[in-house]
Amino acid sequence: MGISKRDEGKKVSSAINVTPMVDVMLVLLIIFMVITPMLNNKVNVDLPIAAAAVVMEDANKEDSTVVAVTRDGKTFLGGDQVQVDDLGAKITARMDANKQGSKTVFLRADSRSNYGKVMDTVDAIRSAGVSQLAMLTEKKDQ
């Protein structure tokens, strides 16, 4: 009777299979690449209702300059919160960097925001040398 020895341990590979992990990471990367552009320029405000509304497609373009005033008086340039005092300089810098884009600044103000805050924002936009200011509203249902 001899002792039988198994050689199964020599067949075991200790290399880690990274293919499933890479597949999951690529799917997550694609999901985040698709969703991220939709998240960056939105601040939730309830727009006032008017009879005629500015075409929202122009405001939704990637190179458009959108300023938002929330109901609690905060001012946003795109998705970034800014002080009203700094707004004129930041709009000027954005317009200079975006030479081929639209020179119109779109203002989204919550219908319940303080009128004085909205007017301070309009003054700051005008101080940046902007000649075309479009105020976004919701279109009135008729």
From TrEMBL:
GO biological process, one term: protein transport
Listed Gene3D superfamilies: 3.30.420.270
Intracellular or extracellular location(s): Cell membrane
GO cellular component: plasma membrane
GO-annotated molecular function: transmembrane transporter activity
InterPro entries reported in the protein's UniProt record: ExbD (IPR003400)
Major place of residence: membrane
Keyword Transmembrane: yes
Alphabetized UniProt keyword annotations: Cell membrane, Membrane, Protein transport, Transmembrane, Transmembrane helix, Transport
Transmembrane segments: 21-39
Pfam name, any one: ExbD
Domain of life the protein comes from: Bacteria
Membrane topology, from the record: Single-pass membrane protein; Single-pass type II membrane protein
Family: Belongs to the ExbD/TolR family.
Protein name stated in the entry: Biopolymer transport protein ExbD/biopolymer transport protein TolR
Organism: Granulicella aggregans
Lineage per the UniProt record: Bacteria, Pseudomonadati, Acidobacteriota, Terriglobia, Terriglobales
